[in-house]
Design brief:
- InterPro entries: Amidase_dom, AS_sf.
- By secondary structure, the chain is an alpha/beta fold.
- Helix 14 crosses helix 17, helix 14 crosses helix 18 and helix 18 packs parallel to helix 19.
Length: about 475
């Protein structure tokens, strides 16, 4: 009874602001003092702040209005922050008290964070699962702390494929028990991809300008591609993994999903760096943060003198009639990168096959270890281990609609049967390192490349091994 009462209380809190919107107590104007909020990027918003055409409160009110209007259809947001307007008012006060140039580019900007990223506030952190509703995290995630230090407004939690798509192979992209079916705002019948679906959906639908996602295997790049937004997937350790509901500490990474490249770079700049709660990864990776930061590279001629490789096979294997190949070639003409292009990763078909590469073997073992550790660290939680999550899903199937019957929890069941990192798992991990060295890394070194250009998001599944911890 106590658990269900707690769920009811959390639902009341998460919908309190939306009730104010429906009652007309919160303004949702698209234009304020001649400034159009819709499609505005961070630079536009900051200029409007400086010119007194916009306040953070008005910006938050607009986004809350768009969430109330669009979210029942596209399901990009799981929960809104009851303190969002308070945080906006605080930012407005700070802006009045400080001289221009003293505040970060993100100061007063609302941000949605994926629902597997811990926030020590009135918001839940559940990975889209009812099993963690009402749980209490010990502290903000490392990246959230950095965002708060930059002065952002935490607008709420973005939806996702439940448990970051680690529960079952048959879960639809963007679906979770708490969030429902996430839909692509451009084509409702098209996949939004996952698992950071809501982070991309919400930016694409103008329910927020800035969001955070996480990626283990293409989980930011794929939704960004599907929803026509921008994602940056950092090398593991550039951003702290502390406070993230994990899959694999070796591959998990946190990064921005935004409307523009410059917005994504502002967020990246804010969230990278050492974190004592993830010292193992961030201490080493922070050495590679460029002196002067990433913003210095935001210039029109940034690609001048850079050597770009282009991989078409097998990534241009689209159905007959698809516009993607032509659009891709037109893009290459625009960037004047049409020569010396047909590069190929020799072992790409093995890398893309999680069973053949050994990645599936490694991931299920890592999932059990990492998730058990995260759950034990919670201050309050209905579940304390993967085994208890599995049992919860069976016992409280009414909280999951009909998803357990339809989608199952096959990955969880396989992961629970693992016994840690034994000889088989170690062999799989060694093979993944070899595949990376002989594949993507070899392509970059042999061809002296600065970057690789490829259509779609499939290539993210080839280069993620190179950015894993320890590789």
């Amino acid at each position: 009874m106590a658990f269900h009462c707690q769920i009811l209380l959390q639902l009341v809190l998460s919908h309190a602001l939306l009730i104010l919107i429906f009652s007309g107590l919160i303004s949702t104007r698209v234009t304020v003092h001649g400034f159009s909020i819709k499609e505005a990027n961070v630079d536009d918003l900051q200029l409007a702040f400086q010119q007194n055409k916009l306040t953070s409160r008005q910006l938050v009110e607009f986004y809350l209005g768009e969430i109330s209007r669009l979210n029942p259809l596209v399901h990009g947001v799981i929960e809104v922050n009851p303190d969002a307007l308070y945080q906006a008012d605080k930012a407005d006060g700070e802006r009045k008290a400080k001289a221009p140039g003293w505040l970060s580019e993100l100061h007063g900007i609302p941000v949605l964070v994926k629902d597997n990223i811990a926030t020590k506030d009135k918001l839940n952190t559940t990975a889209g699962s009812s099993a963690l509703l009402g749980s209490v995290v010990p502290r903000d995630a490392g990246v959230v702390k950095r965002l708060r230090d930059a002065g952002v407004v935490i607008l709420g939690k973005a939806s996702l494929t439940e448990w970051s798509d680690s529960r079952s192979l048959t879960l639809p992209d963007g679906w979770s028990a708490r969030g429902g079916p996430g839909l692509n705002p451009y084509v409702l019948s098209a996949s939004p991809c996952g698992s950071s679906s809501g982070s991309a959906i919400s930016v694409a639908a103008n329910m927020v300008a800035v969001s955070l996602g996480t990626e283990t295997r293409a989980s930011m790049i794929c939704p960004a591609n599907a929803n026509s937004v921008v994602a940056i997937k950092p090398t593991v350790g550039l951003t702290s993994r502390a406070g993230i509901i994990p899959i694999s500490l070796r591959q998990d990474s946190i990064g921005p999903i935004c409307r523009t490249v410059s917005d994504a770079v502002y967020v990246l700049e804010a969230i990278v760096g050492f974190d004592e709660n993830d010292a193992e990864a961030t201490k080493q990776a922070s050495k590679f943060i460029p002196h002067g930061g990433y913003k210095q590279f935001l210039k029109p001629d940034g690609l001048k003198g850079k050597r770009l490789g282009i991989t078409r096979i097998p990534f241009l294997n689209y159905p007959s009639g698809s516009v993607v190949p032509n659009v891709f070639e037109d893009h290459l003409k625009t960037t004047r990168r049409t020569n010396g292009c047909n590069l190929e990763i020799n072992n790409i078909h093995v890398i893309l096959n999680v069973n053949q590469s050994g990645e599936a073997t490694a991931l299920v073992a890592e999932l059990k270890l990492a998730l058990n550790s995260y759950l034990k660290d919670l201050v309050v939680s209905p579940v304390r281990s993967l085994a208890e999550v599995i049992a919860f899903n069976k016992k409280f199937s009414d909280l999951m609609t009909k998803s357990l019957e339809e989608y199952g929890q096959g990955i969880f069941l396989v992961a629970e049967r693992t016994k840690g990192i034994g000889p088989v798992e170690k062999a799989a991990l060694l093979n993944l390192q070899k595949l990376s060295r002989d594949g993507f890394e070899k392509l970059m070194i042999d061809n002296e490349l600065d970057a690789v250009v490829t259509p779609g998001a499939d290539f993210a599944q080839a280069c993620h091994l190179a950015s894993a911890l320890g590789d």
